[in-house]
Amino acid sequence: MSKSINLGIQIVPKSKTLDSYALVDKAIEVIQKSGVKYEVTPFETVMEGPQDKLMAIALLAQEAVLAAGADEVLVYYRMQVRKEYDVTMEEKTAKFR
């Protein structure tokens, strides 16, 4: 079984005619339907799960934004990966809830 990592993805769509927020919503829809744990924040969406699965979801999210009409996208990733054990969002944020 693959270790869980955290992957933060920020997709910045470029379009001369379409609303950027509506395009970003297309990426978030892909992530919501994926079944992985995720959290939407004002600047990025963070996912938790196996790295290969998260990278595949990220690619689908990027493709969804282009399919929705974006002329191009800038995609920024941030990942936390541990050698020996899982990375969870809960360990970083539980004390604030």
TrEMBL record:
SUPFAM superfamilies: MTH1187/YkoF-like. It comes from the Bacteria. GO terms for cellular component: cytosol. Residues 9-96 form the Thiamine-binding protein domain. PANTHER family: UPF0045 PROTEIN ECM15. Belongs to the UPF0045 family. This is Thiamine-binding protein. It comes from Aquiflexum gelatinilyticum. The lineage of its organism: Bacteria, Pseudomonadati, Bacteroidota, Cytophagia, Cytophagales.
